[in-house]
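Following up on my earlier thread - several people asked me to post the actual chain instead of describing it. Fair enough. Here it is, all 328 residues.
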Amino acid sequence: MKRRTFILFPAAIAVATACLLATPPQPHALTPTWPQRTVRFILPLGPGSGSDIGARLFADRLTARWGQPVVIENRPGGDGFVAITAFLGAHDDHTLLFAPTSTFTAHSILHRTLPYDPHDLVPIARITNTLISISVPASLNVNSLDQLVALARRQPGKLNRASITGALDLVLSGFLKGIDLEVAKVPYRDPVQAVTDLAEGRIQIYTSAFAIVQSQLQAGTIKALAMTNQTRAPTAPEIPTATQAGYPELAFDGLVGLFGPPNMAPELRERIAADMRAVAADPAMEPRLIQTGQILNPGGPAEFAAAIEDQTSKLAAIAKALDIKPEQ
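Reply from S.P.:
Thanks for posting it. Predicted structure:
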């Protein structure tokens, strides 16, 4: 076989060298071609939840945008640990965590040891806010937080409460301690089931995603006294926020967003966040999400990280006031 010889003339060498010098180095050469295969969104909640429906709405549009399938994998249970460990155990930038921040922001407060490093949950994009309501049975005959607080003061120890475990439970507990109210906590293996007891008057205070209580609210068996979110619910504008009702201590947004693995390139995180914002701008998205008890609140990695840090700091302060000791 004859060896071919290539000769570069001085002019060609000069042109090639200039091109090389003019092109900056690419530290993440694979980033522009992402995704190269199916993208998985792992969720800590089951099918039919607000976050699940929102994830599927985004996945459908991202599939068309990225030219690769985006599939949803539900991993509920275990206080969020099941989904988080599955996500981090994949060691793959095509496997992302789509989750409410309340899934994990209280983990380090409530547990002495964790099966994962919280710093490995790298924020990519803030997507929505889950609407969170403070509800009471209609039979309690109270119509505002002021009336509820007054009733609890008149009947110390007579009322009880339930809430979704983790961040929401801490916020409610901190509020009650801060105003020196004695309200017993009723534990539930599945806090979603508490809505039935609320409607029948066995639970007097329930803090949860608005979507959980919406059907009972429409049936007239319960009343929503306030939303913990910063903005009112578009589907129930008559319900004030906790801050508007005079109780800013109860203010807490139900942030939902997308997380990547710790080695994900910053440029890729920004690209994904930009695509999420583009999808969120679709006029058809907001009405669909509102029906599931969510409102759009898109933001990039820095905005999302800052919001998580604010919530984590608030929960840490509440835990300190409550003198909570992490369990094993």
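The longest helix spans residues 301-322. That should answer part of your original question.
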